[in-house]
Amino acid sequence: FYGHYSYISPIRGKRPKGFKNIEDIKYYHDCSKKILAKYQDVFNSIIDGKSVSGDSGIAKGKGFTLIITEDEKKRDNPFLETPHQIERIPNACKALTLINRYPSMSRVVDREIEKYIKQNLPSNLKLSRGINLVTLSRNFYPSLCFNLIPVDVLAGIFLSMKASILYCIEEAINKDYYDIPVMTFFNIGTKVGGSQPRIHGQIYIDLNLDGHGRRLEGYLEAFKEMGENCHLCHTTHGDTDRIILNTEFWTFYNTGSPVRNYHIRFHPNEHIRRFSQLKVNQINDLAKCLKIIFQALDDLEIDKNRNILFNCCPYGYDANFHMFADVIPHEIIGGAEMADDMRVARKSPNIAAKEIRDSLEKYIE
């Protein structure tokens, strides 16, 4: 199946908020180094291996979770039933991937509970199965401030995400799951779904075995029509006037049909289908490029609240697909955009690309 679908998760509203108030949010727009040593967030109890208290003295957490990967090293099985208390994470670690405690899908369900749920669900609903992961930096770096995030830490986040995807897919296949869509993304800032100030990525591994969404279907159909003549392998992106950065491993450009103003699309120059196929040199270059592009957007005073979305071929699909990704700055949209798959943009993509190229010049070595 494909089309529009919804995950209904009552516990999502119970997620701890990393920003206490408006002043707290404004503080993290400052992006000076003084904020690095100040903040205690919900992840400190896991990283430090001990209970961490908030300003009110109430414990934020006791460090119970499942760590799927520490950097690229496998830790807990993604289908392990019981979280456990974590020992202090070594300083040498750059990033770790955890089970998301407030997921949109059920990872493990007791048989009796599953039976009860299925008996009581309305006929048009089903119990959603899958794995939700969150990958974070070991040390605190605010997601709104890419100028403060070391390139090797950002690369470490990507590497941990890659390793965790491969581990989870391996274990899911062992449990007879197949045809597995994987959504890899970053919500950077409260306006685009980021509830925590620490830089972190997320992964949704859908184990429902019932297809994918309408947007992915459009991409799959487009690549099917291309056949061996892959558009991303051959296009000049508007005779280069929309390209903002081209390296040995990546091409970044402003898309001709922007979802938001300054919408940036990028893809590996190698024809690969999935995020988990990226090599170390590609990941290192991606981290370097994203850091300077985000700084260039900051200098243009583009909203710091941004999504990064990686579009990949689901596991088990025998489809020709060239992985690509989007950087989408936050904007308020109107009714016309919600009524159809369209956008009324104010900035011509070639002009937006030139502005970003000019802003990038000082960061390119």
UniProtKB/TrEMBL annotation:
This is HIT domain-containing protein. SUPFAM superfamilies: HIT-like. InterPro entries: ADP-glucose_phosphorylase (IPR053177), HIT-like_sf (IPR036265).
